[in-house]
Amino acid sequence: MGGSNSPHCTLFSVSVTEASQSILWLSEVAGASLLAGVVGSISGLGGGIVIVPVLTMLMHVPIEQAIGASIVSVIAVSSGAGAVYVKDKITNVRIAMFLELATASGALLGAGYLSRHINPQALYILFGLVLLLSLLPIFARLGEELPAGVENDRIASALRLNSSYFDKRLGREIQYNVTGIPWALCIMFAAGIVSGILGIGAGVLKVLAHEVAMKVPTKVSTATSNFMIGVTAAAGAGVYLRRGLVLPFLVVPVAVFVLAGAFLGTTIMERLSNSLLRKIFALLLAIVGFQMLIRGLGGRY
Amino acid sequence: MPIDRKTNAPSHGISDVSAWVLRGGVICSSLVMLIGIVFTFAHGTISVHRIKTDGCDYRPDIIWDGIRHGQGKRIIEAGIYLLLFTPIMRVFASSILFAFQERDRRYTAITLLVLILTLAGLLWIG
Questions:
Q1: Domain tally, chain A
Q2: Residue A161, helix vs strand vs coil
Q3: pLDDT, tens digit, for every residue of A254-266?
Q4: For residue A46, what are the domain limits?
Q5: For a Cys-Cys bond, which of A224, A261, B75, B111 suits B95, CB 3.0-4.6 Å?
C-alpha cells in the first residue's frame, strides 16, 4: 500500500506500477463508498459509519483526514438521497427547518466555544454510552409498523408539524402526528454540539430525536434526518477545509460512489417496512455506539 | 387516534424547489470534480501517497488562480465547494419561498436564522 513519493515519475515502468496500485486502491475506496451511500441513505445516518472505519483500518488514512472525507460524503448522501425523499414527500420539511435551529446553534456553540474546553475522548465515551442506552426505547417498539396514539403537542400544533406521506409498501397515505418537541429540541441541540466538537454529522442522534421523542413513522425519521445532516455537515466542513484535512483526490471517488449508493438506497428504503427499517437502525445504533466508545478509549476507528 | 386534518398539506412548492436545488447541486459538483480528475490525469498519474497526503486549500483566490491555469486539483476543490454549498442553497431557497410564496413569517424567520447560524459556523469558526 506504500506508493512512491514522487507524483511525476519519468520511468515508464514505475509509472505503470504506480497507476495500477492507485487504481486498485481507488476501486476499494469506490466499493466502500457505494456501500456507505446505500447504508447512509437507508438509515438517515449519512454514511460516516462505513467510510471512517474502512478508510482508517483498511486504507490506512489518518483518522482526521478520514473524517474530513466522511463529512463531504455525508453532504453528498444528504443532498442526493434528500432530493429523492423530498420529491416523494417523505421528508417533513417543516420539522427539518424548525429542528435545524437547534442543531445549528448547538454546532456553533460546540465548535466555537466548547471544543476548547471539552476533552474529545470524554465526549466520544459519553456519546457512545448515550447511544447504547437509547437502544432500550428503540427495542421497546422494535416490531411496531406505525406509531399509535400519538397526539400533537402544543408546539407541533402551532408550527403545523404534523403531516402525511405516501407509503409505497403499505400502498396508502399515512397521516401522522408529532409529539415531544421540547425533548426533540434538546436531543437536536446535543446532536449539534457533538457535530461541532467531533466534526461528525451525528445523524444517529437526529434519527433518535424523531423515533424516541417525536414518535413519527420510521420512514419520516430517516428521510427527515437525512435531509438535516447536510446542513450540519456543511457547517462543520469549514473547520476541516481550513485545516487542510479534506483530501481532494480521496474525496472525488468517495463523493461520486457515495452518491450512486445513495440513489440506490432511496429506491430500497421506500419499499422496506417501517419495522424492518427500525431494526436496521437499531443495529447501526449499536455499531456506532461501540465505535464511539472504542474511539473514546483511544482506538483508531 | 384523532389526526388533526385541518392543518397543513405539505407545502409542495418548497419540497419541489428543495429537490431541484439538491439534485442540481450534486450533479454540478460531481461534474466539476470529474472534470478536475480528467485535467489531473492529463498531467500524469496520481500515486496512492499523493491521494493520502495532498490536502485541500480553502482560499478562494488560490482556487480561482489554479482553475485559470487548468490545474486539476483546484478544479476538484471548486467542485467540493459546490457540494458544500448545496445544502446551504437549499435553506436559502426555502427561506425565499416561505417569505414570498407561502407568506409565512414564522418559518421565514426560522429558515433565515438557520441560514445565518450555518454560515457563521462555516465561515468564522475553526
A1: 1
A2: coil
A3: 999 999 999 999 9
A4: 14-296
A5: B111
